[in-house]
Amino acid sequence: MAANKGPFNAPPRPHPPPVHATMVQSDPHPTEPSTIVPLLSRALHRIRSTPPRIIASPATQPRRAAVAIIIRVTPPPTYVLPQQPITDGGSPANVPAPSLTEFFQLDWVNAPGARPEILFLRRDKPDSASDSGHMSGSGPITREAHVAFPGGKTEEGDEGGLYTAMRQTWEEIGLDLAESSYTPIGQLDDREITTSLGKRLLMILSPFVFLQLSPQTTPVDPSPGTTLHWVPLASLLPRPVGDGPRWSSVSVDASSRLAPRHSTILRLLVRLLVGSMKFPAILIPAGAVPSTSSEVTDEKTIDAKRAQLEGNGPSPMKRQHSFRSRHGHNDETLKLWGLSLGMTLDLLAHMAPPEVRRGGAGALLLPPDVESELLRVPVMAPSLASVFPRFGYPDVNFWIWVFGKRYRAVIRGWESSVRSGGTNDRRINWTGSALTTFYAAVRKALVVVIIVRAVWVLLGLLCGGWLLFMR
């Protein structure tokens, strides 16, 4: 790190980072669409000017958490940055940080090939307060790694959610968001973290957006078992603006949600009756595999450039290989899902122009099967429709649709407010309403499914017994 003392009187952190806590660089694209930077500018200005939906913590559950959504713009590897002014004493001059408008007017930000990126973390041991994989329900151990944002629980003495996000980021990855190289943009809507299929509130989560104002990224020192992934926004945005998100799913054993942990028989019964839950997920590029000799050259240039920007250590690709070879992560798949997916989609939705948002193009950020799930509803609120699971058994999904009338009404209500006013109604907790109504439909559907299957089992036993005794 550039300094040993952080803004929260944190103890000195050793440097350089240990081998097991590395910076992993995502797959760079040879070219970056020139439209990404203007869209990012529009999104950040919109977030700064739009008051977030704040959810007050009930007296029965006062716990809160906060995460930091950190965005940077990486200049092209061949771009020569202007030298920083030097004072008479030979030290760098104290140049004031640019405003948000001034930042998006800088030459290196608008240079062809400049690439906006967003920071995700991959944790070996997910934290229950900040990791979307754990909060969304971690099923059986798989080779799928879940990525999330830096952050965690609010502690006594924190001055607010923004302070929590900054403190947790410092403690977890050694990045000081109080430096002049970073500026807080604003807050996205609060989100409710629940368990037991939305029946019990765990805490309120507040996402805060930060922008890196300098082309150089401060050297970091992540906690052991934590890797950093700077992911191009182009890989998350739909075509023709970006490359289009690669949708997948994360399977979770339904018995881990519905049955007591220590009741083996009941968990086995629920597993047989209900099956698994599949949460939508976006595949995160974890490394580059060049296919041509020219791409190899570009890859080496980019690695050398960013290794210099992020510290005088080994290149990101070499450190990635060292980390994965020691911890067995060489063939795992990185996936963005759950709460982290919802918050990411909230951010990406701000990048759409107003005329596109009113036209329903937000459906381009939806999983391929969600449109049929909502019966052709022109969904403009992707984060309300892309984070809820489907079940492995078709009849369970059918009964969820039967009891999901109120959930679909919430989606239509959100879209109606967007179409009429250009922004969603801040008086209504749309995400909370969607969460409540969807899981209410799930609970009713599961009751019906279990009863129907129990009846069929009983009828089968009766018929079997009748045939046995008749002989």
From TrEMBL:
The keyword Flavoprotein does not apply. Keywords: Membrane, Transmembrane, Transmembrane helix. Residues 62-254 form the Nudix hydrolase domain. It comes from the Eukaryota. InterPro entries: CoAse (IPR045121), NUDIX_hydrolase-like_dom_sf (IPR015797), NUDIX_hydrolase_dom (IPR000086). Residues 1-33, 125-145 are annotated as: Disordered. One of its GO terms (molecular function) is coenzyme A diphosphatase activity. The keyword Glycoprotein does not apply. The chain crosses the membrane at residues 445-469. It holds the Pfam family NUDIX. Residues 9-19 have a biased composition (Pro residues). This is Nudix hydrolase domain-containing protein. It comes from Ganoderma sinense ZZ0214-1.
